[in-house]
Amino acid sequence: MSEIAFYVLFIMVPLVILWLILLSDLVTRPDLTIWRNLVWGALTLLFAEIAALAYLISRPFPYPENSARLNEDESGSTREFLAVAHKRAQGLVGDEEWEAFKSELLT
Questions:
Q1: What pTM did the predictor assign?
Q2: Which of 19, 39, 37 has its CA nearest to residue 28?
Q3: Is residue 96 left, alpha or beta, with left meaning phi > 0 and alpha meaning psi from -120 to 50?
Q4: Rounded mean pLDDT of the chain?
C-alpha cells in the first residue's frame, strides 16, 4: 500500500497540479484563438506530461498583453521596446529594423 501512496503523493499530485496550472494559463491567454486552445487542451488530455512540457517550453513569456501590467510611471519607451521585441519574436520585425530601433532608442 505504501508504494501506491508514494506514487499518488509524489507523482500524480504534482502532475495534476502542473496540468491545472497549464489549463488555467491556456484559458487566460488572449493571444490564442479558440481552435488553438482546443488543440492544446486536447493534447494535454491525451498526452498529459509530454504536452504539458511542450506547451511550457513553446509559450511566449511575457505576453504582449502583459504590458498593461507595467507600472504607470514607466516610460513609453519601455512599452514601445516590449512591443517591438514581441514583434521581433514573432518574425514581424527583421534584424535590420531591430538594430535600427535599438540604436534609435539608445541615442
A1: 0.48
A2: 37
A3: alpha
A4: 78
